[in-house]
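Bug report (template v2)

What were you trying to do?
Predict the complex of my protein with 2-acetamido-2-deoxy-beta-D-glucopyranose.

What happened?
Run completed; filing so the output is reviewed.

Input:
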Amino acid sequence: MEFGALPLILLLLVTIFTLTPSVTSCPPSDRAALMAFKSSLSEPYLGIFKTWSGTDCCHNWYGVSCDPTNSRVADINLRGESEDPIFERAHRTGLMSGQISPEICKLDRLTTLVVADWKSISGPIPACITSLSALRILDLVGNRLSGPIPADIGKLSRLTVLNVADNQISGVIPASLPDLSSLMHLDLSGNRISGPIPKNFGKLQMLSRALLARNQLSGEIPSSISTIYRLADLDLSGNRISGSIPAAIGRMAVLSSLYLDGNQISGGIPASLLQSKGLNILNLSRNAIDGQIPDVFVPTSYFMEMDLAYNRLSGPIPKSLTSAAYIGHLDLSHNHLCGVIPTGSPFDHLEASSFVSNDCLCGVPLRIC
Ligand SMILES: *[C@@H]1O[C@H](CO)[C@@H](O)[C@H](O)[C@H]1NC(C)=O
């Protein structure tokens, strides 16, 4: 009899727990963390934080959602540019000032933190953010955040998206960043990040987009990048990167866009880059690249954009370029090229501006030879 009563008691306990309001609405500690987050920000035009009232932060708080199994806050999703009706009614994009309170680090079940495109949020990225071990998406693009990327960012083993582009982040790329073993999308563009790209950057084996443009990065392109099998887009433009282009980059399986323009890159153009099957956007302009353009184009060569302008390239325009399937935008201007501009389909639509300021190019669309 005594043992027979046990399941009944358990059932009773389970019933009590599932009916207790603390399980279906957000815990007071999560609510308190959100209130602290709210109180360090000011959003004067849309009134999104007016919805952040009452005890249950899991229901009808703009941009907040909870894990239904435990009612813990799982997502904060606040975008200052959105098609949400709240923006349409206000006829404007969002503007928010203030800072991101470190109190959000108490939301230890957070998987998504998006506080994007609010233009005026300043102050640092709270260093404690690296303790949010469930975090998958960290998107703080388009604010005015300053200070460094937290040094131990590499602890976030579940992070798939790290986007802090278009802020005023300074310091170096943390040595721990290549430890982000789940990272697929990295965007640090448009900040003030200096120092080298870590040599072991290639540890980021899940990465498909690496956007590091418009910073103050220096040193060489780590050759380990070429081991990132899934990398489709690599943008290092507008930095102070020097050294030569690792030939192995041209042999990457799915690389489709490579932007290295506006750096201090020297050496020649690896033939592999022009022979790559997937690469169709290549911008090497405004560097110190020299030597001849490798004569390696084939009938499957397909480039939507190939910008080699403002370098130190010499010799002729390779004849094999006329056999390419398609070359959309080609810019060879401001180099030291010499000789006859080949005739053929890829050249038919090009204007003189693609060839000007070389040593001695001639033929259509420039002067006759
Ligand atoms: C290549 O980069 C240069 C310099 O950053 C830029 O001016 C140019 O428009 C880019 N070329 C293409 C085809 O986008």
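What did the reviewer find?
Residues 177 and 273 are 27 Å apart (CA to CA). The helical segments are 2-19, 21-24, 28-39, 85-90, 271-275, 345-348.
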